[in-house]
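Schema walkthrough. Field components (list of strings):
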Amino acid sequence: EVQLLESGGGLVQPGGSLRLSCAASGFTFSSYAMSWVRQAPGKGLEWVSAISGSGGSTYYADSVKGRFTISRDNSKNTLYLQMNSLRAEDTAVYYCAKDPYDYIWGSYRSYWGQGTLVTVSS
Amino acid sequence: EIVLTQSPGTLSLSPGERATLSCRASQSVSSSYLAWYQQKPGQAPRLLIYGASSRATGIPDRFSGSGSGTDFTLTISRLEPEDFAVYYCQQYGSSPPNTFGGGTKVEIK
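Field assembly_structure (string):
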């Protein structure tokens, strides 16, 4: 059974940093692309970042480019999202998601974690 | 960037009724690379449909997807109490970003 468990969310001041983690199990982690998708309170879904199975290819939405860094440790079956220079508009639930294959440029999200809330406020 | 417009914003129906949700793209979605997700309050989204019409693992056959080009439809043949939720479409046929629609809420009438 695929399981994705996010952690690392919390309250941070504008301009601050936070690192999210996603522990994966139930599948061969290194064989699949992974994504982060966020949802602001009461709003829709936004695909934030994605990374290939090897970690060699990455994608960032324009809204986070230059501030967020996605990475993975295949030896630990863990996905990360380093978030710097946080803004109030980054406040959202951040979901870790497994893609159905190892291709980040066009895919859907086949499994989702339960999400972790990031609140950016002074 | 392809923009997806979902309609209606809210659909008020009774259990047992048929629900028809629309997702319209601003440009043609190549190879019918369109997915549908269901999200219940306080829960993560769940994949229902991919490739416009293929049901994901474990999804009941009362859920069906159809369409191509710019017009796609999610149909729930007979609404069960657990189907009242928000539904999102997402296209993945073009270069990133793989955009989501704004969602349709299916509520109990």
